[in-house]
Amino acid sequence: MRLPLLASLTLLCVTAFDAAARSPVGPLSPTTGLVLRDDIVQAFIHESSGDRIHDHVQRLSLLARDTQQGYGEAAKWMEAAAKAAGLQDVRLEPMMTGPQWSATRGELWVSLPHRYKVTSYADLPMSLPVGSGSFEGTGLELVDVGTGTLDSDYAGKDLKGKVVLTTGRPSLALREAVVKRGAVGVVSSYSTPPWNQPHRLDGDFPDQVGWARVPPGLVPKGTPAPFTFMVSDRQGRELRAQLRGGPVKVDVSVAVKEVDGHYSIVSGVIPGRLAGEEVVITAHLDHYKPGADDNASGSATVLEMVRTYTTLIQQGVLPPPARTLRVLWLPEFEGTRHWFTHHAADPVRRVANFNFDMLGAHLSRVHSRFAVSATPDWNASFVNAVSESTVTFMNRFNGVKYPPRRDFYIGSLTGSRDALNARVERYSRGSDHQLFNDHGIPGVSFTTWPDDAYHTSGDRPENVDPTQLHRAAFAGLATVTVAAWADTSNAVELARLVSLHGIRRVADDEFHARQGLASAAAMELPGLYRLARASVRAGYQREREALRSCLPLGAPAATVQGMTRQLETSEAQALGRLEADAKARGASTREPTPSEAERRARSVIPRRVKGQELTPFDDVASNTPPQDKARVEAVQAAMNAATVALRERGEDELRFYELADAIASYANGKRSVADIRDAAYAEYGHAFPVEALLELFGLMEQRGIMSTVR
């Protein structure tokens, strides 16, 4: 009788506990604009700690997490820390075991005209890129090849057996100088990835050392991999100055080996009441040393969110969540792909993903902003309205150094008093949330971007602000809570929030559509009117889908249907205003006779093949037979043209990262290629040629990644 009695007592205690701790989700607060109780908002602010997060950032920054050994240490530390923070069922899920690169020594010395050490793996591990090969050599001549991208950089230069010095990406010099011309290695002062060039150029920060890798498969199998050293712009200029005075010779000593091992995913849960429902929180744990903002900050912030949740649950401030919180620390992209390979078929409905990547940049010091990337329009969700309401609240009470409401001010004892001006942006790719969206799970990503120290040795803990970390933790707590705790008793409040924010978003859509018509040349009006109309309709469809995403959380169907009917009425009025604008400019609003390509595009309805959600178009392009090369080039030309147009318009580089894959994600078996063309225009404001989109989906179908519903 003792065991049943204990079980009964436990059940009674849990029931009483749940009853004592009310749901944190409630009516829209007149003070905060959130669908969280004000006391819960205050509890999140004052229980979480940016100072504690910064301590964890410093700890993780000591490890070279781009190697299996360093990552393994970080994963074991996170496993122990997560258990101590109260996370349950914490485990290390091993990824595929195989040869892993490991360095034991890497030194670059100048031996002539004077002997001195330039850099070493022991002092700065990222100075020797992962993938570099072993090499021993003395008195090697150094040859400057400039950017290493042009034939003129190599003209008249004998590189055999020599070391090249370049300002360009080391992978380019490795192919041109080492593989083609016989050089033995590369020294590069490159530091700025192409997608970061709108914010900084090589040389802007002369003492930063860039992060690079030696590409696999660069040399034929059985041939030793070449070595590469990364140096700062200042060091590169010093070496060139010495070259102008005469020969410069270097000594190289690199010892690397391959060891069998694997990376692991750190996984754990805060159990929920509803069986088979999860909210997934992700942060990538891998990166070079120090990698403080990218991404020790995200990993440490998620750890503090876990501790805050478990503490407040233990104190009775919060009840257990309705949905299980699944927390994952993993290698970026590859870890998430591995996790989906093993867990996509789990009997679980995953409501949303919240991704935390680069959260702690000192906003004024590295010229950054705090932002949330919304879900793509094709994957509309309530999470966007929740994110917008959270950002609006944070800006209101943290936009000045000395706000009148100290209980809503989010700061840290050792942090800055930077004013906050956060924002929610349209869908950007470039981190693990994109893979969740590609699987149909609405994913938003929190980040500080840009960052003057991004992917360089300057990404150090001193450039990470405890106050910003605290704010990022609060943003995560506030948004995740709504997704994880909303249920049938309060989901109607969430639907009302989604409706309110949807009104503002469709107003923005209409403004941009009408602005485009007002500024268009007369000859452009007919085609632009059709796209503007499609853009407005796509915006209203997005908001209807966002409202419907509240239904599985328990929002009453009748209430949601009433809200969607209001949107339909508003949509008809907006389209009427758009038509009036077009007619006022003398444009025809009649549907033009469709071209042959247009008719085909309306009849082809693509759908991703299950299990192929993450196969990129680049794989298709690189494995397409020669007879289809022109088709691939047509797709690439269209994507390049879109990239140029969006870049010139001032869009962030991550908005059009892997653009072909972003467009392919619209294929759901319901939209025709013509529908996808219109929806992509609504998302990006760029008219993709329907002929190129037909080729895109045709090539993917040919590869077995897409099927077609006819």
Please provide a written account of the structure.
- This protein is an alpha/beta fold and 710 residues long.
- The protein has helices at residues 2-20, 38-47, 50-60, 68-84, 170-179, 233-244, 292-314, 334-343, 383-398, 433-438, 466-485, 491-519, 525-548, 557-584, 596-603, 617-622, 629-648, 659-664, 673-684, 690-702, and strands at residues 88-94, 98-112, 116-120, 135-144, 163-166, 185-188, 227-230, 249-261, 264-270, 277-284, 324-330, 349-356, 369-373, 423-425, 443-449, 605-608, 706-709.
- The protein contains 20 helices and 17 strands.
- Helix 9 (383-398) crosses helix 12 (491-519).
- The longest helix has 29 residues, at 491-519.
- It starts with a helix and ends with a strand.
- 49% of the residues are buried.
Principal-axes geometry comes out as globular
Low-confidence stretches: 1-19
Strand content: 15-25%
Question: Termini, distance in Å?
Answer: 64 Å
Mean of residue pLDDT? 94
Global Rg: 27 Å
Helix content: 40-55%
Short account of what is shown:
It contains 20 helices and 17 strands.
Helix-strand layout with pairing:
Layout: H1 2-20, H2 38-47, H3 50-60, H4 68-84, E1 88-94, E2 98-112, E3 116-120, E4 135-144, E5 163-166, H5 170-179, E6 185-188, E7 227-230, H6 233-244, E8 249-261, E9 264-270, E10 277-284, H7 292-314, E11 324-330, H8 334-343, E12 349-356, E13 369-373, H9 383-398, E14 423-425, H10 433-438, E15 443-449, H11 466-485, H12 491-519, H13 525-548, H14 557-584, H15 596-603, E16 605-608, H16 617-622, H17 629-648, H18 659-664, H19 673-684, H20 690-702, E17 706-709
Parallel strand pairs: 4-5, 5-6, 6-7, 10-11, 10-12, 12-15, 13-14
Antiparallel strand pairs: 1-9, 2-3, 2-8, 4-8, 9-11, 13-15, 16-17
Helix pairs in contact: 3-7, 3-11, 7-11, 9-11, 9-12, 12-13, 12-14, 13-14, 13-19, 15-20, 17-20
